[in-house]
Amino acid sequence: MAEGSEAQAPMAFFIGEHLPAPGSALSFDMLDRAASDNYNMISAHITNINYQTKVQAIIEEARSNGRTRVYIPGLEVEDVNLHPDDLVASGKVIGVTSQWIELDSLDPLIASASRQVLHHEIGYAGFCGLGTLLIDGPKTAQQNLAGYCMSIVQGLAINAYLTINIMLPALGPSMALNQEDLDVSTQDSTQTPEVLYDELTSWDVWNAIRTSARYTSRLGLALKVEYSLPRTHTLKRWFSEPIRYLIIDSTAFLLNTKGYPVLTKPHQKLVTQFARKNPFYLLSNTRYAESVPENPADVEFPPLGSTVVTGGARQTVSVTPKRRDDPQSYRKYLHHHLLNLPPPPPLDSFGAGYQDYLQSPLQPLADNLESMTYEVFEKDPVKYNQYEKAVALALQDLHEQGIEDICVAVVGAGRGPLVTRCIRAATNASIDITIFAIEKNPNAYTHLMKMNRDVWGGAVTLVKTDMRKWEPPNTYVHILVSELLGSFADNELSPECLDGVQRVLHPTVGINIPQSYTAHYTPIMAPKIHGDLLSRATSSNSVDIYEVPYVVMLTAIDFLSQNNAGEPNIHQAWEFKHPVPADELEHDCGFNEHNQREAIAAFPIPRRGVIHGIAGYFECVLYENVDGTAIVELSTRPDTIDAKSKDMISWFAIYFPLRAPMSVPDDSEAQVSFWRHTDGRKVWYDWMVETYSFVLSSPEGSLISSPLTLPSEKSTTSGYARKRVPIAVSEICSSKKNGCLM
Amino acid sequence: MAEGSEAQAPMAFFIGEHLPAPGSALSFDMLDRAASDNYNMISAHITNINYQTKVQAIIEEARSNGRTRVYIPGLEVEDVNLHPDDLVASGKVIGVTSQWIELDSLDPLIASASRQVLHHEIGYAGFCGLGTLLIDGPKTAQQNLAGYCMSIVQGLAINAYLTINIMLPALGPSMALNQEDLDVSTQDSTQTPEVLYDELTSWDVWNAIRTSARYTSRLGLALKVEYSLPRTHTLKRWFSEPIRYLIIDSTAFLLNTKGYPVLTKPHQKLVTQFARKNPFYLLSNTRYAESVPENPADVEFPPLGSTVVTGGARQTVSVTPKRRDDPQSYRKYLHHHLLNLPPPPPLDSFGAGYQDYLQSPLQPLADNLESMTYEVFEKDPVKYNQYEKAVALALQDLHEQGIEDICVAVVGAGRGPLVTRCIRAATNASIDITIFAIEKNPNAYTHLMKMNRDVWGGAVTLVKTDMRKWEPPNTYVHILVSELLGSFADNELSPECLDGVQRVLHPTVGINIPQSYTAHYTPIMAPKIHGDLLSRATSSNSVDIYEVPYVVMLTAIDFLSQNNAGEPNIHQAWEFKHPVPADELEHDCGFNEHNQREAIAAFPIPRRGVIHGIAGYFECVLYENVDGTAIVELSTRPDTIDAKSKDMISWFAIYFPLRAPMSVPDDSEAQVSFWRHTDGRKVWYDWMVETYSFVLSSPEGSLISSPLTLPSEKSTTSGYARKRVPIAVSEICSSKKNGCLM
What we know:
The structure is a homodimer.
Chain A (H helix, E strand, L loop, with lengths): L2 H6 L5 E5 L9 H9 L4 E5 L3 H16 L21 H4 L3 E4 L11 H21 L3 E5 L8 H14 L4 E7 L31 H12 L6 E7 L6 H7 L4 E7 L4 E2 L5 E2 L2 H11 L4 E5 L42 H13 L6 H5 L17 H11 L4 H18 L5 E6 L5 H13 L3 E7 L2 H13 L5 E5 L14 E4 L11 H8 L9 E3 L2 E10 L1 H12 L11 E3 L5 E2 L11 E7 L4 H6 L9 E9 L3 E16 L6 E5 L5 H5 L7 E12 L3 E11 L3 E16 L6 E4 L13 E9 L3 E2 L5 E2 L1
Parallel strand pairs in A: 1-2, 1-10, 2-3, 3-4, 4-5, 5-6, 6-7, 7-10, 11-12, 11-14, 12-13, 14-15
Antiparallel strand pairs in A: 8-9, 16-18, 16-19, 16-21, 17-23, 20-24, 21-22, 21-23, 24-25, 25-26, 25-27, 25-28, 25-29
């Protein structure tokens, strides 16, 4: 690929140069060089080595005088790299705060001095007009994490327009190697017990910081990637978080057989996945940072032929090639990779802009938003095909049973897409049908008249009425087709609507399409959505924002309950079947009690995390034929959609929020209860989460110890019984106040 | 004690008869009999055996027809024991809902039918005008607890004036024996893993119920006490909860040597402790409930001479005495015990009505509430005695150093109590002093003039000024006496005030009284306070109620961090000493930074619970003499107040709330950080809680398992390292918006 074409290509991504050393003052020259090197932005330290020297001298002096507090003066002109000039106004500069400070020191002198440095830098950055800062994460996970958090929370209050991004390594344990002590440090390592380091340790730190700051959207992540990558489940966890920048170190690259730097397959996958969410990359050329070597071969590379930590690519070259990794080669590679990304899957393009966007509470009657998207939904490449297949199967079954004069009714016909498919199915099967289209919306009815005149050749009998009041003329309906499902199957009152029209269905051979549908659910981590709700809670709302489910394209989430293969554990809540047995309708005392449902399911959670809410999906059998040889289904479950209705885009998931996030440890369990309530006038849901951990109880019942085994080494000590211990419960959450009127 | 005197004694307690069986309709006869038996109230089932029979038949019929839902009709006249008549209007009747229902059944048919029964009963009880209901707890802790919670939460919504009390056994594991299955039950015991039963299991159930109902004050506990009592730590836990009724079963009694029923020492202690909080007792005479035996000796008693579960009394009588335990004897004994209770400790009488009452945020300037209680505080039997002792010691030290013309100044003299004590100390020591009283409040100053004229004989020089502006005439002050401490020591800005007046103190021999003070803290469970805050949060407040500490007489709390002796672990946060070293004041850059403080401490938590907030206390050295042979102190720490200033009542504790309660497991740790911030204009606190559990890591680092040993059996597997794993963190809580202006 020619160098020229890079710059002209439509830029959906931004690669910046991350300058890891304070160096000298930022200049237009540097920015010019970066631009001429095809970088889109540059990160630069706000202050320089002068300031560091000055502050460290102040600390030293205070310490030698036995003082434990010190006042750090503000920035002088020779201390800073940036000024409020055109350079900053270009928007291409990202500020980096001092990395030599130690906000999480247990020494009050160091911690307080570090905090003052940070706050001076934040204040000055805001003054200069910078919009984005990068701040180094805590030096370790085990010292004074609370002190770090407090410094960041105070920092966020200094300038309301700055976005702060915490730099953290993607792979947890490397934090321990990251430690850079101020030489004046007097840490007392005996004060706090040793922290267990594992892959999620870095995430633990992030989780603490953003929780301490109440999930503000002004706080993001700048995730640092080196050669060693965490395993898939840890990467999934990171992608549920607000990663605003991916900082790729030059040490993350290998050399290919020609001596050019390349990324391993797992790194490529990471970059690709990130590109779908947020296109800001920073390249940190640590091999060349301090002094550009005369000969690139002097720089130490990871051994060629070494195995990458996870998955795919293994470099097996054992002969050292001629090195061609000049500083620019890393950016060129990344540019090349990003320009050659495959197109995103259909749902991604369709849902662009809808990711994690909470839509208004559902009501059975379509609101404006749904009207706007209605046209889009009719273009769903899958849904109506499935309906047509289902109708064809049903017609065939009825035909084979010798039924003549088959009557088909589409109830809630809308703009008529199902009518079209019914006619097509009958035509293709050469079966004559009588067809009705029932619609209560007068505007849609007008459009149905147009369709009947222009498209269906007057073959359809149109009826403008609520389906529950429809009286068909002298006949039973053989196939009753509807599309009343919501994101949680029954949440737009499909059961109640179909109950009301069931009397028109042929009592022995009548078929409902869909025949049955099921609601499904699983607890999830959804920090972005939780932060969104928190920000809404502060404004004055008449509706309790936690007492209502939301339709949402779940994107920045993590499935907390997973099986060993990393697939989400999703449980079926309940099922509705149509037609409803006659005696069930008969026994209903007018309180719609036969449409009540309840569900309780335990979700094992292998790795610690935070439950923010419950994700809901549905599955639906449109039709299974009489001899059971064919079945047509729909699914929105992420683990079954590909098998049942791949690329279907008509439904987003549903999200049931929790007011207070619930932290769960490794090897725990969430028991989630759901109820579909109805009192004959409206329908609503209640939900509740109980969390449990496990202990081992000896046969004598005396000694009790808990196994917390790594997933691969799970075992049970013989004779010991695994027992459940409660951790916490949520409140009973309820959408009663926002229930659907029948 | 004669029977007659009982009825005439002032009744600070109410003993009711708890009727455990549905029996027949409640009548005036029963109430009359109860009244004539000296009961103050009676508990009675709302519905009777007719209703039970009817409902069970409906369930049976539904089940035999294969239906999983059933509609339970409302109450008919022959189903109920109560009517909206004078009997109920007397206020002496407590309703009991059906105990044969199973709200926590996993069988939807049973659970739903049970819920309908409960809700019919609640509705009817409200209609009749009952104010209080008793509802049986879940049948077990391991089935469908969420279903139970949901039924209660829905029940609370039926009538906004009813108070619901959940009946739960004080001793957890006995729940397992409590199970009464509906004979139609089809529980699937394999569905959920076995729950670990321990002493806190019953509390776990309560914690789940009240959390699910968002801590509403309309939900309370009716704690059932039998012969076996839980250990002290579990009883302490219960007493942090809203126990509204103590239900004492007749089986809780032993026979004394004369054959009369008596309570063991631990039972007596429980009854006494309860009497200080809420005086409603119910006696459940299960020995006589179903049919009164002809001969009381036929009723099985716990073996005489058996050992009670905890502590004290052990009955060693081995010869069976003549039984004298007729049904009335239990009530008579309880009456007798309650009438002969010892008087409560001083703080209890002083604080009556203040228990867990959250007082307005503190400001250094006294508000009306503090003015009203000021007079009371001057009557503190301890505080001013301690000040007098301290002044006497200081005078003696100065005198022995040969200082003549000793000058004493009381800064912030208020109404003059400290002036009186200074004069008395000098008179007793026969040391002449010059004494100043500095006060800026003009109203208090007028009162000081009266004191000087009428009491002090004009011996005091009064100065109306802010102490920070006072210029003494031609002299240094040798002893500077102040009472500026708040509940968290420095929270009413004592350090800042004393800094401002330090220049008048003699530079070499000057003494401050107090000389030093320290703030102390520990995480606590405080469900009542949390519920109070939750109820305030729903009304529209301009102040964030979680961003401010409260002065409160902490009563319904449990110390989560305890040592093996059950004493609370309380950590010192920081110390202030006066006078401040001159160079420290000198180096302050005007931002008051020398009065900044920070604290971080880890609190081991042996038993699971919920952290609602942080309790704060203070200790203070008024004066320690030069040779260290005498020290005069004040303390509000519950574990040191008796040693340092027993019966001091001037200060309640301080409470720093958490917005979201944090659940902690057995054998965990809370790390609590505190900061005292100041910017030279105001002073505020930040606080944050991190929770941790522990795992054992093998020497190879591969296998990781967590010890969760019972406190008495704590041990470490050899070679394994105990490491900390994060559970959760709070937000950074801050009182900045409500900080104290300097």
